[in-house]
Amino acid sequence: MTLRIGMIGTGWFSRKHAEYLSEMNGVKVQAICGTSMEKAATMAADFQGSQGYDDFKRMLDSEKLDAVYICVPPMAHGQIELELIERNIPFLVEKPLGIDIETPKKILTRLEKSSLLTAVGYHFRYKQSVQRLKKAVNSTTLGMVSGYWMGQMPEIAWWRKQEGSGGQFIEQTTHIVDVLRYVAGEVDEVYANYSNRVNHMKYEQVTVADVGAVSLKMKSGVVATISNTCILPEGVNKVGMTFYTDQNMIEWHPDRIQIKDTSGSIMEELKMDNPYISESEAFLHAVRTGDASQILSDYQDAYQTQLVTCAALESALKGVPVKVK
Ligand SMILES: NC(=O)c1ccc[n+]([C@@H]2O[C@H](COP(=O)([O-])OP(=O)(O)OC[C@H]3O[C@@H](n4cnc5c(N)ncnc54)[C@H](O)[C@@H]3O)[C@@H](O)[C@H]2O)c1
């Protein structure tokens, strides 16, 4: 049976997902919805046999879709998910779930009354390096973690506006928060300091903070810090985490892991894997068979990550620690 997929969004990541999907057996990119007919038709022309739409409800009325990929900016979530739940159409939604808690909470409440399959684009969970990390940390007593996402501000206009992206910690560094939760459990409380140092003076209409340091108290007693910046010059980046345990120190980067213990230092270069393909395969396997066991991040789980990143924003704005609830 060929699965018919609808794409919502015609930007960078919708194209990426559609490219991977169109190379899979038994999967067809059937319909593409954009904010204009022109954008939708342009993208549809690149995926043979697909149809463009400029209204997602019309797309859902006109096509019989087995699943939908939602690849829109953080501020555009809400109606799309609610409509898909109403129509009982499984969806994979890109992270983050929104710019705040209100909209994801509404969606979660509706999802809890259904048994609809969902997946969220926290793709690092599907990487070999994260699976290796989880296994390595599990056989130790973890003390503390430091994580970071240091880089540049993306060119896209919505990213620079607080009301468009939610800011770097909610939009980007959310991946690090999600890996932390996946490996080390739930977060109890956060205290954040954000500042605008450079970008608002260099570029027009920048309202997101460009440096931030967040201290996290985990329910297990583990303490963590996660920092981020988007002021670095092009090509200067650092993304990763360090785990400090009673037996070793583990440096994790998306494509490699280094474990240092008393016997020396072991660097494990892992083979380059494509987590976006594994993520889609897990989701589509669930759509085909009803077996959701391979989905490593669903809406309910991703909501917990959203709670942490939004609590950090609240803490930065209020200047006080905030409980994650
Ligand atoms: N998991 C990852 O590694 C990863 C990587 C890149 C992007 N993303 C996420 O994917 C999402 C989209 O990012 P992008 O880079 O593709 O952005 P983009 O700006 O390139 O594309 C967004 C698209 O959504 C469209 N859009 C906006 N509102 C819409 C609506 N209501 N209906 C239909 N289309 C709408 C825009 O016109 C645009 O085509 C973001 O949340 C981003 O964080 C995830």
UniProtKB/TrEMBL annotation:
Residues 3-122 form the Gfo/Idh/MocA-like oxidoreductase N-terminal domain. Residues 131-236 form the GFO/IDH/MocA-like oxidoreductase domain. One of its GO terms (molecular function) is nucleotide binding. InterPro entries: Gfo/Idh/MocA-like_OxRdtase_N, Gfo/Idh/MocA_Oxidoreductase, GFO_IDH_MocA-like_dom, NAD(P)-bd_dom_sf. Transmembrane segments: none annotated. PANTHER family: D-GLUCOSIDE 3-DEHYDROGENASE, UDP-N-ACETYL-2-AMINO-2-DEOXY-D-GLUCURONATE OXIDASE. This is Dehydrogenases and related proteins-like.
